[in-house]
Design a protein that fits this description.
Number of strands: 0
Order of helices and strands: HHHH
Oligomer: single chain
Shape: elongated
Number of helices: 4
Distance between the termini: 13 Å
Length: 107
């Protein structure tokens, strides 16, 4: 019974992550395009932590690199990193959705 509750809690955590992460990736891309270092640093830092919590190391690494650039007030290579972040995030979102579908079917 405890395992079932843990799985439900994890599934809820994934739902919250998806709900928050998708608009955050959009905000990161917009901040890069606008040259908004402050917003980029904040959004990338928050997303880095959420991705790291899920052990999504490629996503967390991209977010970390963007955060570092933003804190240094630099944008060289930021667009490419933001595009990679978006691509890696899309893969992560797909994996999470497939996991959630399998979890719902098994419940």
């Amino acid at each position: 019974e405890s395992i079932g509750r843990d799985e439900e809690a994890y599934a809820e955590l994934l739902d919250v992550f998806l709900e928050d992460a998708q608009p955050r990736v959009t905000a990161i891309r917009a901040a890069v395009q606008a040259g908004d270092a402050s917003t980029l640093a904040c959004e990338a830092h928050t997303y880095k932590g959420a991705a790291a919590m899920l052990e999504a190391t490629d996503v967390a690494s991209c977010a970390h690199r963007l955060e570092e650039l933003a804190r240094a007030g630099r944008f060289d290579g930021a667009l490419e990193i933001a595009e990679r972040l978006a691509a890696e995030s899309a893969v992560l979102f797909d994996v999470i959705r497939r996991y959630r579908s399998a979890f719902l079917c098994a419940a």
